[in-house]
Structure formats: C-alpha cells, structure tokens
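Quick one: co-fold with NAP.
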Amino acid sequence: MKILLIGATGEIGKIIHPELGKNHEIISAGRNSGDFKIDLSDTNSIENLFKEIKDIDACICVAGDCYTGDLLSLDEEKLNIGIKNKLLGQVNLVLTGQKYLNNNGSFTLTSGKMADKPVKNNIGKAIVNGAIHSFVLAASLELQRGIRINAVSPGKVSDIPVNDLIHAYTKSLQESVNGEIIKVNY
Ligand SMILES: NC(=O)c1ccc[n+]([C@@H]2O[C@H](COP(=O)([O-])OP(=O)(O)OC[C@H]3O[C@@H](n4cnc5c(N)ncnc54)[C@H](OP(=O)(O)O)[C@@H]3O)[C@@H](O)[C@H]2O)c1
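Sure, here it is.
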C-alpha cells in the first residue's frame, strides 16, 4: 500500500513509521519535517498535498496539538488551539482526502484516552478527542468508494507496549473495520 503518514517524526510516528515501512510505501508529511510539507490547520495546505501526491491508499494522521491546563485557565483562544489543529485539522484531512484516496482506501485518525477517561487539566484534549470519535462514527456511515475510517485512541504512549500501538494502527489499516474507535491502554 502507499500510505500518507502525517506526523511521522512525532512520538507515535517514530514508532509506527519504521514498522509500517517494512511492508508498505510510506510518504511522510509534517509542518517542518517529512517528505512533504503540510499544516493541518491550513485547508489549502491539505488540498495542495493531496493534489501533489497521487495514488494514495491510506492516510494515517498522528499529529495535532492541544492546550493543556486547568478549567480556570481555559478560554476560547486556548481551546481553539486544539480545535483548529487537531480536530478541524483531522476533519479537514478527511473532507479533502476523500476526493483523492484510492477506492477501498482508509483513514486512520488519532484521538486519545482523555476523550473517555479525562484527568485534571486536560479539558481541551477531552473535548477535541471526543469530537474526533463522533466524527469517525458519523463519517464512517457516508464515505464512498469503499473508503473506511477509524480512530486510534491511545493512553499515554510511553506507558504502552510498542506492539500494542503498532497493532492498533495496522488493525485500522489492514482489517475490514470501519467506524471503530480502537482504544489502546485504557
Ligand atoms: N504521545 C502521547 O502519549 C499521546 C497519547 C494520546 C494521544 N496522542 C495524540 O497523538 C497525536 C500525536 O502525538 P505525538 O505525541 O506523537 O505528537 P508529537 O510528538 O508532538 O509529534 C507531532 C507530529 O505531528 C507533526 N505535526 C504537529 N502539528 C502539525 C500540523 N499542524 N500539521 C502537520 N503536522 C503536524 C509534527 O511534525 P512537525 O513538527 O514537522 O510539524 C510531528 O511529526 C496528537 O494528536 C496527540 O494528542 C498522543
């Protein structure tokens, strides 16, 4: 498969990139790193990337920042960091990418445990991750040409056995699952 991997140089990307690269062609992308440049917070940048890279079977996103801080410190501007980068970034990736992905392709988004099991100071992540789950459930009903979508929702990555994380992404990529929130280390 030809896979577009956004965020390949991050903590999760560094784990899954070499593993997926054993069996697939990986095109990496990030704001400042990777084979191609993309900024998820900029819709034009997403469209340009899909126009430039042809023939993609799967798109995996392991990128997107969120604000960390307590309820009293949270305001609209801080909330918008995660909404713009991580939530709308991944949503726009799908809205745009659905026009370009090959038949029977797949999207794998990344959310996080804070959606379901928040701890203090993570309201920004809880909101964004929960919304990504809702988007995946709803979009999976409507994507066309056999295209699937799932989210991997990890706990703290440094606490997760590497193979469990890899299994979650390969499950979304290679199995016939659609509209699934794949929870890792809850
Ligand atoms: N690490 C964890 O414990 C954990 C747990 C649960 C969920 N998550 C979620 O998983 C995702 C990845 O986490 P991570 O820890 O691997 O992140 P990370 O170490 O901060 O790396 C982020 C990666 O994404 C790229 N990136 C960041 N913002 C981008 C943007 N706006 N457009 C395009 N590329 C962008 C970065 O490359 P450039 O700097 O070149 O842009 C980098 O390769 C995040 O959404 C995070 O919330 C992480």
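If it helps, Residues 76-97 form the longest helix (22 residues).
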